[in-house]
């Protein structure tokens, strides 16, 4: 174990355990249950920003939401499972920044009408 002083409290001695990083294999000092080194914990920079443009299937789902269809009905019409429809809905909500089906229907009314 390696003794190291904590920068917040000079009287507190922090005990570090030598470990190997699970991602890169480097040795580092860990406090408790850490499995990755500080370099691997930093988020990787995004190479591209996700597109706000909807795919064909996502546009189909938005159109069915505008018709007030339930997930089960959408799944039946598009030959998908209900879980797949939920996944599409989650992706659509995140892409467009909407919080619920009503906001999505209103978004579709203004934006899909312009695209047609």
Beta-strand content bin? 5-15%
Count of individual helical segments: 5
Distance between the termini: 66 Å
The largest beta-sheet arranges its strands as 1-2-3
Q: What is the correct CATH architecture of the largest domain?
A: Orthogonal Bundle
Count every beta strand, where a strand is a DSSP E run of 2 or more residues: 3
Mean pLDDT: 83
CATH H level of the largest domain: which superfamily? Winged helix-like DNA-binding domain superfamily/Winged helix DNA-binding domain
For this structure, the CATH topology of the largest domain is Arc Repressor Mutant, subunit A
The global form is elongated
Please give the CATH class of the largest domain.
Answer: Mainly Alpha
């Amino acid at each position: 174990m390696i003794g190291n002083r904590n920068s917040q409290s000079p009287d507190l001695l922090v005990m570090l355990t030598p470990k190997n990083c699970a991602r890169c294999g480097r040795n580092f000092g860990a406090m408790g249950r850490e499995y990755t080194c500080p370099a691997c914990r930093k988020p990787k920079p995004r190479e591209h920003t996700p597109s706000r443009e909807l795919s064909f299937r996502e546009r189909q789902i938005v159109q069915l939401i505008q018709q007030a269809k339930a997930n089960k009905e959408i799944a039946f019409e598009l030959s998908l499972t209900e879980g797949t429809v939920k996944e599409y809905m989650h992706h659509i909500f995140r892409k467009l920044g909407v919080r619920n089906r009503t906001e999505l229907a209103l978004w579709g009314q203004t934006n899909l009408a312009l695209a047609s």
